[in-house]
């Protein structure tokens, strides 16, 4: 079993511009009395972490009951949030622009490569730069039932600006492309991020999505939505919070304050677990709770 911590050590540190105080995040409870998973992860089983009263343990030596994390659901949840937020913010910043919907597919004999979509986006960006137009985009990688990848890209364009056909311009020489105009860009994005991709197997090194071209307050808001849930509850959208380069935690670049996660992770038997507290992990209590949940599901 391997243990890891999301946060930094609990003492004053010098990181960034100033020596900032380390803030230990709280652990808000769900309405049913059980602690919410403030990592932003999706639990497979939910259980109290600590004393069994619903209060997380803060005393050293008190056993901690972990939560098993559904890593696939967590990844999909993150992708959906980032893509829909990006589409919404783009639409808010350039509400009078049109949105081009691009679909990029592969010929059967062409093998996927992570650099393909990056090169395509780079060609679009350079073409728009020559026309003094920022490149605003969102893209999603989707797998077919035959496990063949293809891309859906949204590009925001001012009226009178139309991209050339990507395959004919050799921006996508790997297969076919199609372009349409979207009336509701967020709805179009929601259509593709809501498709059932729970059982897909991504190619090695593949990213599921990309968002680019946001500016100013919209960029700050997009970065805020990308933070862990427990951290979003403590910082505002205009706070320049970044991962601390000094060994963990999150750094407020203006105040020098470091925010420390209340959650730690453990890896056991190929699964990922989250827990709170400084005591040993009570795997027996976790197994007992898992069996109760499984038996209740069978009865239902």
Description:
The chain is an alpha+beta fold and 300 residues long. It has two domains: 2-70 and 228-299, no CATH class; 73-223, Alpha-Beta Plaits (2-Layer Sandwich). The chain has helices at 71-93, 114-129, 185-193, 216-225, 229-232, 283-299, and strands spanning 2-5, 13-15, 18-20, 22-24, 67-69, 98-104, 136-143, 149-157, 177-182, 209-212, 241-243, 250-252, 258-260, 264-268, 271-275. The protein has a five-stranded antiparallel β-sheet, covered by helices on one side. Helix 1 packs antiparallel against helix 3 (185-193) and helix 1 (71-93) packs antiparallel against helix 4 (216-225). The longest helix has 23 residues, at 71-93. Residues 5-14, 16-20, 26-37 and 46-58 have low confidence and may be disordered.
- Which architecture of the largest domain does the CATH hierarchy give at level 2? 2-Layer Sandwich
How many domains? The number is 2
CATH topology call of the largest domain:
Alpha-Beta Plaits
Number of helices: 6
Termini separation: 34 Å
* Number of E-state strands: 15
- Spatial order of strands in the largest sheet: 9-6-8-7-10
Percent range for β-strand residues: 15-25%
C-alpha geometry: globular
């Amino acid at each position: 079993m391997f243990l890891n911590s999301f946060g930094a050590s609990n003492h004053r540190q010098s990181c960034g511009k100033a020596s900032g105080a380390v803030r230990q995040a709280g652990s808000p409870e769900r309405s049913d009395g059980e602690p919410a998973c403030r990592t932003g992860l999706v639990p497979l089983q939910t259980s109290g972490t600590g004393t069994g009263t619903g209060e997380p343990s803060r005393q050293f030596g008190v056993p901690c009951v972990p939560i098993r994390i559904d890593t696939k659901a967590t990844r999909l949840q993150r992708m959906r949030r980032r893509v829909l937020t990006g589409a919404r913010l783009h639409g808010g910043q350039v509400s009078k622009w049109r949105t081009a919907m691009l679909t990029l597919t592969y010929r059967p004999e062409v093998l996927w490569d992570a650099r393909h979509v990056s090169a395509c986006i780079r060609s679009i960006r350079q073409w728009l730069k020559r026309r003094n137009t920022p490149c605003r985009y969102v893209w999603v990688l989707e797998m077919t039932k035959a496990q063949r990848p293809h891309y859906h890209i949204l590009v925001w364009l001012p009226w009178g600006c139309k991209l050339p056909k990507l395959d004919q311009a050799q921006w996508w020489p790997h297969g076919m492309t199609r372009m349409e105009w979207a009336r509701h860009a967020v709805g179009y994005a929601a259509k593709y991020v809501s498709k059932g991709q729970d059982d897909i197997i991504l190619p090695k090194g593949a990213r599921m999505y990309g968002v680019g071209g946001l500016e100013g307050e919209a960029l700050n808001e997009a970065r805020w939505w990308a933070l862990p849930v427990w951290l979003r509850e403590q910082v505002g959208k205009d706070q320049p919070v970044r991962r601390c380069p000094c060994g963990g935690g999150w750094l407020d670049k203006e105040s020098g304050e470091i925010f420390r996660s209340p959650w730690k992770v453990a890896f056991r038997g190929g699964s990922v677990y989250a827990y709170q507290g400084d005591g040993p992990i009570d795997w027996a209590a976790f197994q007992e709770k898992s069996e109760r949940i499984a038996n209740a599901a069978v009865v239902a």
